[in-house]
């Protein structure tokens, strides 16, 4: 318990259920939440038959990669949930760092939470939420990490841990992810630790100061990536001294 009465999270607060196959680990977590699960539950699967990414995109989910989702119940007040994806990205970066050899290409985070190795995507994170009938709020963090399998026709350049010289198994990588997420969520502290999280995120960010294009649902905007603000919004310098904050979008470099 912290000095202001908030309960501190710890590694022992989390549970893990490993499945051979499921449609989607995110969907499995949501079903558990609707059935009354108390949260802090990890669900992993060796294979997903209906994995999905942002905006409903298909997420290739063959055996050999890590597919994991974390169910959190009421992790923070709604106004502080916006920084959670940054915290998760920091945790995933830490977990992958622990299994990469020293000679691997640079490991970075692309806003808000794609993990890149040598500017090639190796991990996607999908955060979904739903209000439950009993008044609780379920938040699910889905994480797919390319270990030995990659999509055939990606939107972005992609890589996998095997290409980077890592021999880690999905089980070994998940053990690191399990521990790193508990550590980072303790720092995040229900959103109260956002300043420390944003500092950690900036230290591993990809492309700050570079020209980027952000694809929004209705248009594309180009400018210089000026970093993130203290709430995790992307700050796009569109020229003439104008900084545009962006809450969600797909970022492309160059």
Automatic annotation (TrEMBL):
Transmembrane segments: none annotated. GO terms for molecular function: ATP binding; biotin--[biotin carboxyl-carrier protein] ligase activity. It catalyses: biotin + L-lysyl-[protein] + ATP = N(6)-biotinyl-L-lysyl-[protein] + AMP + diphosphate + H(+). Its EC number is 6.3.4.15. Residues 12-189 form the BPL/LPL catalytic domain. Gene3D superfamilies: 2.30.30.100, Bira Bifunctional Protein, Domain 2. Pfam families: BPL_C (PF02237), BPL_LplA_LipB (PF03099). Keywords: ATP-binding, Biotin, Ligase, Nucleotide-binding. It is an enzyme of class 6 (ligase). One of its GO terms (cellular component) is cytoplasm. InterPro entries: aa-tRNA-synth_II/BPL/LPL, Biotin_CoA_COase_ligase, BPL_C, BPL_LPL_catalytic, Transcriptional_repressor_C. This is biotin--[biotin carboxyl-carrier protein] ligase. It comes from Rhizobium esperanzae. The lineage of its organism: Bacteria, Pseudomonadati, Pseudomonadota, Alphaproteobacteria, Hyphomicrobiales.
